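TL;DR need structure tokens for one chain.
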Amino acid sequence: MHSLCISPNTTIAQYTIVSKIGEGGMGEVWRARDAKLGREVAIKVLAAAFSENSERLRRFEQEAQAAGALNHPNILVIHHIGIHDGAPYIVSELLEGEELREHLNDRAIPQRRAIEYAQQIVAGLSAAHEKGIVHRDLKPENLFITRDDRVKILDFGIAKLSEPGAVATGSEDATRKALTNPGAIMGTVGYMSPEQVRGQTTDHRSDIF
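>> reply
TL;DR here they are.
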């Protein structure tokens, strides 16, 4: 993925970039300061390639706005969405902790704790599904464990941006293929439901799988 034109002190709307948190195949995540409300936030800036298809971008914006309206303790709070230098971005609450993937790499999770995590994930998904919102790419990398052991579901709506798309690989080439190949499959290998593998319509049952 090419480097986005963002660095510390870059201004995006009312937000001033502080430092990079991380990056992946979908884009970069930055810590930023909200000048109006005096708080720190996280900004995920997606690769500019995701905005090349206006209809796909419109669907993403609609879904991100719907996800932003969700009010649930197990779903990441979205504050704002927009476009910066042609790249879509999402402003959310700033979390302290680690992704479930990192959590699993570091230690085994006791059975009781694993059940508690599962209950929180189900609660968050249920709240989204009641509003007709499907995640489509639920995996350990999209589940965040906060320092007080609360599970937060991340990236609602982002998978919609690449539908239909290629299997996520983390490369810019794959990202562009996902946006230009209507016969490809969207999702992440190992976590896709059968209907996603077949390129069929997804619904709440896909998340449960």
